[in-house]
Design goal:
InterPro entries: Lycopene_cyclase_dom. With 104 residues, this protein is mainly α. The chain is built from four helices and no strands. The radius of gyration is 16 Å and the shape is elongated. It has one domain.
Amino acid sequence: MRHLTYLAVLAGCLGAALWLEPVLRVGVLRQWRRLLLTLLPVVAIFVAWDLAAIAAGHWTFDPEQTTGVVLPGGLPIDELLFFVVVPVCAVLGFEAVRKVLRDP
């Protein structure tokens, strides 16, 4: 089960943030194009950064705590998901704070 550790942390992150969408109606997921435009540069930059660090031998991933699905260049799929999930959670949190402060 240790190989699911990374995914479990990401699921916990999503679980802690996704409720904001229906409860506070922040509209992040309904504006999927806007979200995608926000995610694309973040994912591209950090994937490139990770791939460079992996190639240089500066960065590794514990194979016992990842799924074992590895993309070209040695990047685990878990890490790619991290670069999507964490920014989505951050945007959900940011929009929730904006909504609460705007609609007291």
